[in-house]
Design goal:
This protein is α+β, with helices and mostly antiparallel strands. It has 28 helices and 34 strands. The chain has 5 domains: 173 residues, Rossmann fold; 191 residues, Isoleucyl-tRNA Synthetase, domain 2 (Alpha-Beta Complex); 84 residues, no CATH class; 147 residues, Isoleucyl-tRNA Synthetase, Domain 1 (Orthogonal Bundle); 62 residues, Ubiquitin-like (UB roll) (Roll), CATH 3.10.20.590. The longest helix is centred in the middle third of the chain and has 24 residues. It binds one RNA strand through α10, β11, β15, α13 and β30.
Length: 924
RNA sequence: GCGGGUAUGGUGAAAUUGGUAGACACGCUAGAUUUAGGAUCUAGUGCUUUACGGCGUGUGGGUUCGAGUCCCUCUACCCGCACCA
């Protein structure tokens, strides 16, 4: 780290030896070990608090300064709550199944377990440096067989459960079987395979053929939230649709509860909205239109459409089917067949590319068939068009051009009629989506707005047997199979092709010779020759997705060593919901939705006593890196300075930020950086320096903009890094990292330490009584710090402590009565230094258990207050008066002041406002 | 297009219910001091004006004695979803 000189390590704050010593002490004393039912000093049980971080995937790159941000924030709160007398559960673990370790294994043959172990060791080492108060005895790893045994068990329970809509929750599948035996005569006649097929339609974890997102490059299926823009989130590979037999989670059974219960959690509104939109609930009606002139088994064919606006049915002028819709083939007339087939084929092929480009014209084709409106009896032409999606609703819509923008555009484009159904609406102008528009030409619905017309319309249609009210969700059941090696194996074997839950032992991830699919295209597990259980006909070769293990890990921390259950009910009853959950916003539709789903399921089955996992959620913003760039003149070894780059044809290259200081490149260091730049020459700026370009982007090794916490800890200490990361700004906000500001925070800690020790390390603390100003400073600081921690304003706490220390320094205050509470205030942010100072103060136990200081308002009372006196809102002078002066006396004092007379220039004030303790405003 | 968010000095930011905008830091300027270290200390630092003063929280408007904060309008940027009937 040549950018920084050597930090003077004065005796008053020798952070290196302090931090080493305190960490050792915490370790030996097991300071952070926590047990259920801990008692307060007075013998009463402590209240519990559960502070949790989203556990990391241990990647090979190690931690950069962005990773610990959330961990520091949660650690601050965990420590604060502990000071307040809570029994705090604050654990950490690893989401250690995942793709990178597997891909590394494919390339090198190294077993993913080995890579994972190495990476975890590195993560642990880096985290230990930062002085977190994690109870490491509760560590969990999702790839540990002792852990995933219970992931498998929960899967088995989901498999053995169904969703009883009447009971409003998950029930054992045995109850359903009993019901079938009791009520369904056909059941007794079925063979095992048929029964299995029927039950599969009810199980919460079920096997089905489904259209999946297949990624050939990764050789696996991906969930919708693992894809963006038609490409895989990881690696950016192309994704295509494919039909496969997959394990699927019936999360849609919980769609309503997943939406409704969002009202019961204290989460950022953005995440709540993301989940709401993702679930995408819409209420309306399912309406059936008969197809004119068709007969199948004696009945006319029917097209079922979903509409959120059944009240606009009189405005329907045509019907549109998705090109993939089954009925398209059946109803298309002979003369239209060629055209329709060509269209459907082209629509299917083109959709993927054009969806990505985002620009799709209006296209569609008439099938030649007509559907009959169940309400007016009118014949409506049936079209196939790609603006209707096969995967949503019924894959068919009734087009109401007057009431829907897309239908309107389609009608315009193909010159289809646009019946006017809204009063005062010009159908030539566009559609009216306004729900307050009043209906006309709509039979019994005339004169009504959507609010009232909706129910009547559904009623009318129901009478004719043509519709019923229905709720639709955008949410799909979640595909739960992955064709990977490094994941939880399913506790499933097959007998006569029927899946059987393995209950005679744990299915442990078997060894394989290669981490690749077999020649037949089976997943890697098909290569396994030795399994931990009898395999029967064959085992399930898929593994579970990454979100399986992370959907319940917060429960395992409560009872991490339990061999008999995933978590004893008494433990989960004690710890309950996670009180504060901190992590990135990128999990909005993945982890955070799935863990809610599993929590509700476990609640339904009576295994835990709460149905939402995370009471309060905070998303920390990403810490971005500031990348630096050099500009190489094409074809040569010459680099041109930023401001002159336009004079040449250049190529922009990332350069390591440690070679750059304030945009100026250390050219010698640059030449030594990489062999290919050894002979570099430079076209410099006018001032003789080489200036780099810069950009704020994600921190990543490949961008050479990574700041490593270890280096900063070595140079400034963990306490400084902790305080600095909190000081950067509001936790939720994304912010670029700038190491420069760290010195200010480091100085603050030194200044604070100097209140306790002089430069030779001698103790300065005295037992004499403090002065009033010292007490005021300390109690003001206690008040502000406590309040800001309560409202999770991490950054302003640091400022408040800086102000306090600045004042105490100016007061030359060294009284024990002041410095004791100050050490406790410091402890959540700078635990090592606080612990050290606590010892210096002669305290026996850990500062972690010191009670949080309580501010005494008596010390904050001031004898006099200063009122800003403003005229017409502009402050003109300040007025010092006794603090207990009444508003009317303050008014008199202000008006009586000579400076007021000067402002008034003899005029009489129109009005005088006195806000006690705040301000005086005089209106002239 | 829909949903959510953001906008304040050269920089990160603060201002909890409307009450002295810019606290606290970084950076910068000047000075002091020093074994000359990028250390430490002191003073200054929103813009503008010689000064008195004037102007200032993305834009335009409104409510109010008083608006960064409340209401309406527009703009830019960020995030999520995206033909969801």
């Amino acid at each position: 780290m040549r950018r920084f000189g050597k930090t003077p390590s004065a005796m008053e704050y020798d952070f290196l030896s302090i931090e080493t010593a305190q960490r050792k002490r915490w370790n030996e004393d097991e300071t952070y070990r926590v047990t259920e039912g801990a008692l307060a000093p007075d013998g009463t049980p402590k209240k519990k608090f559960y502070a949790l971080d989203m556990f990391p995937y241990p990647s090979g790159a190690g931690l950069h300064v962005g990773h610990p941000l959330g961990y520091i924030a949660s650690d601050v709160i965990a420590r604060y709550k502990r000071h307040q007398g809570y029994n705090v559960l604050h654990p950490m673990g690893y989401d250690s199944f995942g793709l990178p370790a597997e891909q590394y294994a494919i390339q090198t043959g190294q077993h993913p377990a080995v890579t994972t172990e190495t990476n975890i060791a590195r993560y642990r080492q880096q985290m230990d440096l930062l002085g977190f108060s994690f109870d490491w005895s509760r560590e969990v790893r999702t790839s540990d067989p002792a852990y995933y045994k219970w992931t498998q068990w929960i899967f088995g329970l989901l498999y053995q459960s169904w969703y009883d809509v009447e009971a409003g929750g998950a029930r054992p599948i045995a109850e359903l079987v009993a019901r079938f035996e009791r009520e369904d005569k056909a059941w007794a006649t079925m063979d095992e395979g048929q029964k299995s097929t029927v039950l599969m339609e009810h199980r919460l974890a079920y096997l089905a053929d489904s259209q999946v997102n297949w990624c050939p490059a990764l050789g696996t299926v991906l969930a919708n939230d693992e894809i963006s823009g038609g490409r895989s989130e990881r690696g950016g590979h192309a994704v295509e649709q494919k039909t496969m037999r997959q394990w699927i989670m019936r999360i849609t059974a919980y769609a309503d509860r997943l939406i409704d219960d969002l009202d019961t959690v204290d989460w950022p509104s953005s995440i709540v909205e993301i989940q709401r939109n993702w679930i995408g609930k819409s209420t309306g009606a399912s309406i059936r239109f008969e197809v004119a002139g068709t007969r199948e088994a004696g009945n006319p064919l029917k097209i079922e459409v979903f509409s959120t606006r059944p009240d606009t049915i009189y405005g329907a002028s045509f019907i549109v089917l998705a090109p993939e819709h089954d009925l398209v083939k059946q109803i298309t007339t002979e003369e239209m067949r060629k055209k329709v087939e060509a269209y459907c084929e082209q629509a299917g092929a083109a959709s993927e590319r054009e969806r990505m480009s985002g620009e799709r014209g209006i296209s569609g084709v008439f099938t030649g068939a007509y559907a009959v409106s169940p309400i007016s009896g009118e014949q409506l032409p049936v079209w196939a068009a790609d603006y209707v999606l096969a995967g949503y609703g019924t894959g068919a819509v009734m087009a109401v051009p007057a009431g829907d923008d897309r239908d309107w555009a389609f009608a315009q484009h193909f010159n289809l009629p646009i019946p006017a159904i809204f009063e005062g609406h010009d159908t030539g102008e566009g559609a009216t989506v306004d729900k307050s528009a009043v209906l006309m030409n709509s039979g019994a619905l005339d004169g009504l707005a959507a609010k009232d017309a909706m129910a009547i319309a559904i009623e009318l249609l129901e009478e004719k047997g043509a519709a019923e009210a229905r709720v639709n969700y955008r949410l799909r059941d979640a595909v739960f199979s992955r064709q990977r090696y490094w994941g939880e194996p399913f506790p499933i074997r097959y007998k006569d092709g029927i899946p059987q839950l393995v209950e005679d032992g744990q299915v442990v991830l078997p060894e394989v010779d290669e981490y690749l699919p077999t020649a037949d295209g089976d997943p890697p597990l098909a290569r396994a020759t030795r399994w931990s259980v009898p395999t029967g006909e064959r085992m399930e070769y898929n593994t579970m997705p990454g979100w399986a293990g992370s959907s319940w890990y917060f429960l395992r921390y409560m009872d991490p060593a339990n061999n008999a259950a995933f978590c004893d009910r008494s433990k989960s009853d004690y710890w309950g919901q996670v009180d504060l959950y901190i992590g990135g916003a990128e999990h909005g539709t993945g982890h955070l939705l799935y863990s809610r789903f599993w929590t509700k399921f476990l609640f339904d089955r009576g295994l835990i006593g709460f149905h939402e996992p995370f009471k309060k959620l905070v998303n920390q913003g990403m810490i971005l890196g500031r990348s630096s760039f050099v500009y190489r003149i094409e074809g040569g070894p010459c680099f041109v300075s930023f401001d002159r780059r336009k004079e040449f044809k250049t190529q922009r290259l990332h350069v390591d930020v440690s070679l750059v200081d304030g945009d100026v490149l250390d050219t010698e260091a640059f030449k030594n950086w990489r062999p290919e730049y050894a002979n570099a020459t430079f076209e410099l700026s006018e001032d003789g320096s080489y200036r780099c370009g810069s950009e704020v982007e994600k921190m990543s090794k490949s961008k050479f903009n990574v700041e490593n916490p270890d280096d900063l800890v070595e140079r400034y200490g963990a306490d400084t890094l902790r305080c600095y990361e909190m000081f950067l700004g509001p936790l939720e906000q994304a912010k670029p990292w700038d190491t420069k500001g760290i010195s200010g925070v480091h100085n603050f800690l030194r200044k604070l330490a100097r209140l306790y020790r002089d430069q030779d390390g001698a103790c300065l603390v005295v037992d004499s009584a403090p002065a009033a100003d010292g007490l005021r400073t300390v109690h003001k600081t206690i008040k502000k710090v406590s309040k800001d921690l309560d409202r999770l304003s991490w950054n302003t706490v640091v400022s408040a402590m800086m102000i306090g220390v600045n004042e105490l320094t100016a007061q030359d205050a060294h009284q024990r009565e002041l410095l004791e509470p100050l050490a406790v205030l410091l402890s959540p942010y700078a635990p090592h230094l606080a612990e050290d100072l606590w010892s210096l103060l002669g305290k026996k136990g850990s500062v972690c258990d010191a009670p949080w200081p309580v501010f005494d308002a008596a010390h904050l009372v001031e004898a006099e207050v200063t009122y800003p006196v403003s005229f017409n809102g502009k402050v003109r002078f300040e007025l010092m008066v006794a603090a207990d002066m009444s508003p009317s006396d303050v008014e008199a004092a202000a008006l009586g002041d000579a400076r007021a007379a000067a402002q008034l220039e003899g005029n009489r004030p129109k009005k005088v406002i006195v806000v006690p303790g705040r301000i005086v405003n005089i209106v002239v």
